């Protein structure tokens, strides 16, 4: 297997070395193919519109220390193969700097498990992109370190959602539902993982969520065609084990039913769950939503900051001061205020993690930049040579060089005339 992966890597490097992938025209051909993928149509349109501009060298100013000169930042585009598992739309969305699929994009898809992934990680790549859990993220990062390979890691974590009493409760409940259960039944990396509200307001929030859930999924959500199944039996059992935990089972206030044959779990809310319960320690990645209560809503920031940094954080409030404090004090990969998950839809916003939730970012031009090396280029002619740059060095030369490096024109003039 390792030999086969090595051949894949060699073939991709050969394609890149031929120069085919460096042209704007080649990338436009790729984009025409990818426009067939509906989930990334809007992103592809943006790329088609902006690609020429993104690929142009960026002119930058120079200082007196290199005068006369010009400078620019050029892009070196990577030819690496992204590490799986990746949802297809992520694979296609992040391909612009790569050498991908034969004929159109020179990607080689390697399916498999731990042995195949290990063989891939033994190879030397320009860059590695991985999305998944933190445990595997650490393995990816450790393997990349052997070759000093840079990485983009989009991981996950426990994404917090704070609900203030000063809010539109109905809209808040509906947006929580669509961000949690409407997003693949919570099986997304930015799904709200737990809610924080005040003890005085929590019951009202539970009632609002219950009411809106029934409107969306009916009295028996397990029969609803709009309620997705859990991805496999292993994760189904993991989630039901969380519900059967003694610290959780008696705290269920909405849902709790499941259908093992169809791998379905009803939207479930757990109120006042203990912080030391398993459901509050690991990323849920499913249709279970614990609610943690605090005395004052401002205490929610302390609760969040006591945990590892998440991929996303959410706040619902009409309180301007609370909003500003939340944005300033909570560290997360991204945020939505009075909304859930929708910040991902904006291509002008980078998407990525921080700390335990990952490193690097992508989306829109950020994807292009993530897979490009910015190469610094200084250009000079043969005029403007300064004797003070060369030995033998004298006190006068040193003063002149210091003046040049300062960039102060008056100091330079004084050095020239020997003041």
From TrEMBL:
InterPro entries in UniProt: Ald_DH/histidinol_DH, Ald_DH_C, Ald_DH_N, Aldehyde_DH_dom, Aldehyde_DH_NAD(P)
Keywords in alphabetical order: Oxidoreductase
GO biological process: aldehyde metabolic process
Protein name from the UniProt record: Aldehyde dehydrogenase
Pfam families named in the record: Aldedh
GO cellular component, one term: cytoplasm
Active site: 154, 189
Keyword flag Cytoplasm: no
Domain of life: Eukaryota
Protein family according to the UniProt entry: Belongs to the aldehyde dehydrogenase family.
Gene3D superfamilies documented for this protein: Aldehyde Dehydrogenase, Chain A, domain 1, Aldehyde Dehydrogenase, Chain A, domain 2
Annotated ranges, domain Aldehyde dehydrogenase: 119-377
Coiled-coil regions listed in the entry: none
GO molecular function: aldehyde dehydrogenase (NAD+) activity
């Amino acid at each position: 297997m390792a030999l086969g992966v090595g051949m894949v890597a060699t073939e991709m490097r050969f394609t890149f070395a031929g120069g085919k992938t460096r042209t704007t025209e080649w990338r436009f051909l790729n984009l025409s193919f990818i426009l067939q993928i509906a989930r990334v149509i809007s992103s592809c349109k943006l790329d088609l519109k902006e690609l020429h501009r993104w690929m142009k060298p960026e002119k930058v100013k120079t200082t007196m220390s290199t005068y006369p000169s010009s400078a620019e930042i050029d892009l070196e585009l990577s030819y690496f193969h992204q590490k799986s598992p990746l949802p297809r739309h992520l694979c296609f969305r992040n391909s612009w700097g790569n050498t991908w699929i034969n004929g159109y994009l020179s990607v080689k898809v390697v399916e498999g498990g731990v042995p195949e992934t290990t063989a891939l990680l033994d190879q030397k790549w320009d860059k590695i992109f991985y999305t998944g859990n933190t445990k595997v993220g650490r393995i990816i990062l450790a393997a990349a370190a052997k070759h000093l390979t840079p990485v983009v890691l989009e991981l996950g974590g426990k994404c917090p959602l704070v609900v203030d009493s000063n809010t539109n409760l109905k809209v808040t409940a509906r947006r929580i539902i669509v961000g949690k259960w409407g997003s693949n039944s919570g099986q997304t990396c930015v799904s709200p993982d737990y809610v924080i509200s005040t003890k005085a307001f929590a019951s009202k929030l539970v009632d609002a969520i219950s009411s809106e859930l029934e409107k969306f999924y009916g009295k028996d959500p397990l029969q609803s065609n709009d309620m997705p199944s859990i991805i496999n039996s292993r994760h189904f059992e993991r989630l039901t084990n969380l519900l059967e935990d003694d610290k959780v089972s008696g705290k269920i206030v909405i849902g709790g039913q499941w259908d093992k044959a169809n791998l379905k779990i009803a939207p479930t809310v757990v109120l006042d769950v203990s912080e030391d319960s398993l459901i509050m320690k690991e990323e849920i990645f499913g249709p279970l939503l614990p609610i943690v209560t605090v005395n004052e809503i401002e205490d929610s920031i302390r609760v969040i900051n006591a945990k590892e940094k998440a991929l996303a954080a959410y706040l619902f409030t009409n309180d301007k001061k609370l909003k500003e404090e939340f944005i300033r004090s909570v560290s997360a990969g991204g945020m939505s205020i009075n909304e859930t998950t929708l910040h991902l839809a904006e291509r002008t916003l980078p998407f990525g993690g921080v700390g335990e939730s990952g490193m690097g970012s992508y989306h829109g031009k950020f994807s292009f930049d993530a897979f490009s090396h910015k190469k610094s280029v200084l250009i000079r002619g043969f005029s403007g040579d300064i004797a003070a740059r060369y030995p033998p060095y004298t006190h006068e030369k040193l003063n002149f060089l210091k003046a040049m490096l300062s960039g102060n024109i008056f100091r330079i003039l004084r050095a020239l005339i020997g003041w």
